[in-house]
Amino acid sequence: MPEELALLVADVFEAAGLLRRMGESIASAEGQTQARWQLLSVVSEEPLTVARAARRLGIARQGVQRVANDLVREELAGFEPNPDHRGSPLLTLTPTGQDTLRKITTRASAIHQALTADIATPDIAAARSLLHRLIDEVHRYEDGDHRLGEHGSSA
Prior knowledge:
The protein has a two-stranded antiparallel ribbon. The protein is 66% helix and 5% strand. It has helices at 2-28, 34-45, 50-57, 61-73, 95-115, 121-142, and strands spanning 77-80, 90-93.
């Protein structure tokens, strides 16, 4: 089983690389980068501080701050006062940012539909389920619980 997991990890990295390249191509059609697209998407749900957006994206706050500043400079996003913390403003999309995100998302949806035309929805759901189980096990391991598999998972 450890060999199969190593092969799965290699496959996930390969898929992530391919999808990252594709994401860069999709975003660049609207003059953006994948990093900007991700941040636009995260703050489209609700205004967030840079630190909270970084946590949601799983990347360093400093990198998110640079991207946020770029989005603000291009008037795709803006900083608003944060009623909960004066020193940490909330990043929110401008109407131009919302329009840019909509264009990128529409383009991505069309490509995703083409990519999955010959893949059954239950197969995608099963792959996602397995990845979520693996992610949960990694979190448990990182949290110091080295008794993996004893939490209802039979990975």
